[in-house]
Structure formats: structure tokens, C-alpha cells
């Protein structure tokens, strides 16, 4: 199966667009101010919700001078209901920037447009192509999806590093003659034909050469894997001492710090659990009568790639050894301070020992 050549790909999309495009007011203008307004309003906003705002803004502020001269409170009031108010403040700021630095004329190239506040690569490409016909490809979620599916791109679109790959591909596909129509077409195609869920593959003009369709990967592409969010954990370390020695255990392999040594610990949902509950749980797990103990007061923190650890330490002098079967089942052993110095330990444990024992 061959893939589309750039010209057949763009021709098919432009042809499709001519038959399926939705009539939206910002598509019938080459005024960079109106295009910019629509792009900022439509960021994080659905077309149906953004449309009345676009019309109201244009009516109230027909030119960039009107917007620049408006009081900020008024702009924010007109924006009310759209959310993400920093967009409105940026909009107002950029209008002033255009008036003061560019005499009210929007810059006419992609590179210069990027100098304006709140204008990133997507908006700059949209204005440069729609208003000035500069052949620079737009890249929004719709475009990523169409390109990943049609050309079989498996790069994770949520990873910043993938942007370059898609940007390069997109810029080889954009035609020099109708870059504005092509950019509109590919975004519209992603919005209504090649949708995230249940795309209309059956009646798709790209079906014959679409990699995802031909390989049964429509539900797999694009790959979008968000970076795992960092998990906050709270460790309560009980530093159990007996006759000048301290209990430590070698950490098992199914968690962080595999094979390093640390103290007996209980993991809790909060940094400061109820002391009574903690004492009861410790007594039960260790097989000893409940004994009162309190934290040394300092919180130790450590950040790993996907976890943030906060730990508290409790110094406990035991008048007896733990029962042998408990020592074994938990993996605890008594070590002298000298022996502990030589053991591999997480930095957090090392810091605590440094402050209290070494
Ligand atoms: S065949 Fe399906 S997946 Fe491929 S471009 Fe068309 S709608 Fe998208």
C-alpha cells in the first residue's frame, strides 16, 4: 500500500473541505486581527461556545485600536463565562503591544508573530497562513490525529519531543499555492471526519492509503501517553533501638529503593497521622504492647522521578528484642552504628542517621 504524495494528500483534503466545511465567520476574513481574536477565543473552547464571544468582541472592538484602548475590567467582563482569564488579559496586552510596537498592524510573518505575547506556534501559523498565505503548517490536536493515522506515526503526541517530527511532516505536506485553505481543511477534517472516537472511515477519501485504516490501527493512533503524575507518599519511620543497636531491614524488590536498608516504617495517607492510631498499628505489626512515641519533629523530603516522599522519624528504645518470628517476617535485624555506616541506604535515611547517630 502506497501512502499519499504531498500533493495528492493536500488536494484530497482541499476537495473534501470544499464539500464539507462548516460556515464559520472567521473563515471568510483575511483580517489578521479578526483571525487572531477567533484563535485566542477558540483555545480550550468549543466552536459553539466561542462563536457568540467572537461576534461580541468584534462588535464591541472592531479594530485592534478599540481593544487596546478598552479598560481591562470591560474586556474581562466581556470575556466572562469563557474561563481561563489569563487568555483575556493576554489578549488585551497583545492588542496594546500591536498598537504600540507595530502601529496597529499585525506582523505579517510567522517568525515575527511569535514575538507577540500569548501567540505560540499554532496561533502564529494560523494567522500567517490565513491572513498572509505563508505556507506554514498549523499543528493542533486535529492535525496530529490525522497525520498520525494517515502516515502511521507512532510517536507519542503528548511528548514534547514528538512535536518536531509532526512539524516536519506537516510542513512537507502544505502546498505553496493554497496554504490557508489546506490548513483550514486538515483541521476541519480532523474535527468532523477523522474524529477521535468513531471516525467516519467508511466514507473517507483517504481510506485507500490511510495507514491506520489499512492496518487496523485506527483505535491505536495517535499514541497519546501522558507522563505519569508524581505520587506523594508519607513514611513514618520507627527507629527501634535495643541495647545500643538499631533495627534495620533490607528493602524488598517490589518498591522503591530496592535492596537498600532502612528502618521499620508504616506508610500513611497523611504526613501527620493520629499518634494513637500509629502506635496501635505499630504494636500490632511488631507484635509488641502499645508504647507511646513521638516524632523527632523534622520532616525529611525526597523527590524521585515519579514519587515524592515525605518522612518523619520516631526514636523508640525497646527494653526487649522483637520476637524472632516477627524479626524474620518483617526482615528486621539489629545492627551496630558502625555496621549501619557500611550499609547502602537511601539518602533520606543517611541524612537522618547523620543528624542523630553518626
Ligand atoms: S480512513 Fe479513517 S482513520 Fe484514516 S483518515 Fe479516514 S477517517 Fe481517518
Automatic annotation (TrEMBL):
EC code: 3.2.2.31
Keyword flag Hydrolase: yes
InterPro entries (UniProt xref): A/G_AdeGlyc_MutY, DNA_glycosylase, HhH-GPD_domain, HhH_base_excis_C, MIG/MutY, MutY_C, NUDIX_hydrolase-like_dom_sf
Free-text comment on the cofactor: Binds 1 [4Fe-4S] cluster.
Keyword Chaperone attributed: no
Example GO BP: base-excision repair
Role of this protein: Adenine glycosylase active on G-A mispairs. MutY also corrects error-prone DNA synthesis past GO lesions which are due to the oxidatively damaged form of guanine: 7,8-dihydro-8-oxoguanine (8-oxo-dGTP).
Protein name: Adenine DNA glycosylase
The species this protein was found in: Rufibacter immobilis
Phylogenetic lineage: Bacteria, Pseudomonadati, Bacteroidota, Cytophagia, Cytophagales
Amino acid at each position: 500500500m502506497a501512502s499519499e504524495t504531498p500533493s495528492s494528500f493536500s488536494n484530497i483534503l482541499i476537495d473534501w473541505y470544499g464539500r464539507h466545511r462548516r460556515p464559520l465567520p472567521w473563515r471568510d476574513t483575511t483580517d489578521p486581527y479578526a483571525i487572531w481574536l477567533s484563535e485566542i477565543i477558540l483555545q480550550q473552547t468549543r466552536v459553539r461556545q466561542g462563536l457568540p464571544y467572537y461576534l461580541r468582541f468584534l462588535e464591541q472592538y472592531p479594530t485592534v485600536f478599540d481593544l487596546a484602548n478598552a479598560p481591562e475590567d470591560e474586556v474581562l467582563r466581556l470575556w466572562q463565562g469563557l474561563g481561563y482569564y489569563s487568555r483575556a488579559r493576554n489578549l488585551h496586552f497583545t492588542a496594546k503591544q500591536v498598537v504600540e510596537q507595530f502601529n496597529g498592524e499585525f506582523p505579517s510573518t510567522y517568525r515575527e508573530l511569535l514575538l507577540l505575547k500569548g501567540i505560540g506556534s499554532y496561533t502564529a501559523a494560523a494567522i500567517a497562513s490565513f491572513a498572509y498565505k505563508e505556507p506554514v503548517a498549523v499543528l493542533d490536536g486535529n492535525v496530529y490525529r490525522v497525520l498520525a493515522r494517515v502516515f502511521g506515526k507512532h510517536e507519542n503526541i503528548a511528548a514534547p519531543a514528538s512535536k518536531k517530527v509532526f512539524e516536519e511532516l506537516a510542513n512537507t505536506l502544505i502546498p505553496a499555492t493554497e496554504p490557508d485553505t489546506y490548513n483550514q481543511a486538515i483541521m476541519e477534517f480532523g474535527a468532523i471526519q477523522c474524529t477521535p472516537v468513531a471516525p467516519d472511515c467508511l466514507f473517507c477519501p483517504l481510506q485507500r492509503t490511510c495507514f491506520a485504516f489499512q492496518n487496523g490501527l485506527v483505535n491505536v493512533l495517535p499514541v497519546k501517553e501522558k507522563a505519569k503524575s508524581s505520587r506523594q507518599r508519607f513514611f513514618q519511620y520507627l527507629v527501634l533501638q535495643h541495647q545500643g543497636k538499631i533495627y534495620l531491614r533490607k528493602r524488598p524488590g517490589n518498591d522503591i529503593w530496592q535492596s537498600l536498608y532502612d528502618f521499620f516504617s508504616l506508610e500513611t495517607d497523611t504526613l501527620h497521622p493520629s499518634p494513637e492510631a500509629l502506635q496501635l498499628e505499630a504494636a500490632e505489626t511488631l507484635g509488641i504492647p502499645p508504647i507511646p512515641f513521638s516524632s523527632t519533629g523534622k520532616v525529611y523530603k525526597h523527590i524521585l522521578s515519579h514519587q515524592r516522599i515525605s518522612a518523619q522519624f520516631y526514636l523508640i528504645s525497646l527494653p526487649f528484642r522483637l520476637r524472632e518470628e516477627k524479626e524474620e517476617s518483617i526482615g528486621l535485624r539489629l545492627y551496630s552504628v558502625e555496621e549501619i555506616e557500611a550499609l547502602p541506604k537511601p539518602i533520606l535515611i543517611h541524612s537522618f542517621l547523620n543528624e542523630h547517630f553518626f
